[in-house]
Amino acid sequence: MVDKLAIKSQKAGLKLVGFQLLIVLFIALVLTVFSSTKSGYSGLAGGITFMLPNMIFVFMTFAHAGASKTKLILRGFYVGEAIKLTLTVILFSIFLKSGTLFLPSFYISFLLLVASQWLAPFFFYDNNGIKNDR
């Protein structure tokens, strides 16, 4: 269950995840066109390895908001981070064990999405440095 106050923050987090989905699709398309289908598939797998756990983290972390819900926010953050790390390890194991991936494409896609986290402030704050309430 999501608090009414948390919906705005969760929306901003989901916008970031949507932006990362576009990055994954673009990387997979570029790799497929300029390299091979296997390379594109590997880039897609690398992106999924980052995106799926990150999306769960966003849902868990931004489920609550407000000063009276501090303990719930903190618990959601820690549980979300634990799930994110565990799921990332599981997905890495599954994809790397499959042995059908072109590993440079897999790692490049994963690392580009990790770097895309640096763009998160643009999704949570407007240009005046004030929290985006839209």
From TrEMBL:
UniProt keyword list: Cell membrane, Membrane, Transmembrane, Transmembrane helix
GO cellular component terms given for this protein: plasma membrane
Bilayer topology: Multi-pass membrane protein
The keyword Cytoplasm is assigned to this record: no
InterPro entries: ATP_synth_I
Pfam families (UniProt xref): ATP-synt_I
Transmembrane parts of this sequence: 12-34, 40-60, 72-95, 101-125
Location(s), subcellular: Cell membrane
Major place of residence: membrane
Name recorded for this polypeptide: ATP synthase I chain
Source organism of this protein record: Psychromonas ingrahamii (strain DSM 17664 / CCUG 51855 / 37)
